[in-house]
């Protein structure tokens, strides 16, 4: 069986606004063999959504997780959540 991958590069997220309902509001999980490259995150502002569900289902939702695995690029301007360590 051969593994397959899609190369993702030269993607820009600019002026992204909105809300999230999961802990992984930003999740770049790219291949170690073919990483994501030249990703630009610029002026990102996403916040937790107000939920009317069982609070135990979304334990501590305000503490967002940002995951960047094998993703490379730059973070420009203010970003919420903080993305300074992402895309290294």
Automatic annotation (TrEMBL):
It comes from the Eukaryota. It is found in: Secreted, Cell wall. GO terms for biological process: cell wall organization. The keyword Hydrolase applies. Keywords: Cell wall, Cell wall biogenesis/degradation, Glycosidase, Hydrolase, Secreted. This is Polygalacturonase. Pfam families: Glyco_hydro_28. The keyword Hydrolase applies. Its main location: secreted. Belongs to the glycosyl hydrolase 28 family. One of its GO terms (molecular function) is hydrolase activity, acting on glycosyl bonds.
């Amino acid at each position: 069986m051969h593994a397959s991958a899609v190369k993702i590069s030269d993607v820009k997220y600019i002026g992204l606004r909105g809300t999230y309902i999961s802990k992984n509001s930003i999740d770049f999980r790219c291949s170690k063999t073919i990483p994501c490259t030249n990703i630009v995150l610029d002026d990102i502002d996403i916040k937790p959504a107000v939920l009317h569900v069982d609070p135990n289902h979304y334990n501590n939702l305000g503490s967002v997780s940002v995951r960047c695995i094998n993703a490379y690029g730059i973070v420009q301007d203010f970003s919420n959540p903080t993305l300074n360590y992402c895309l290294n």
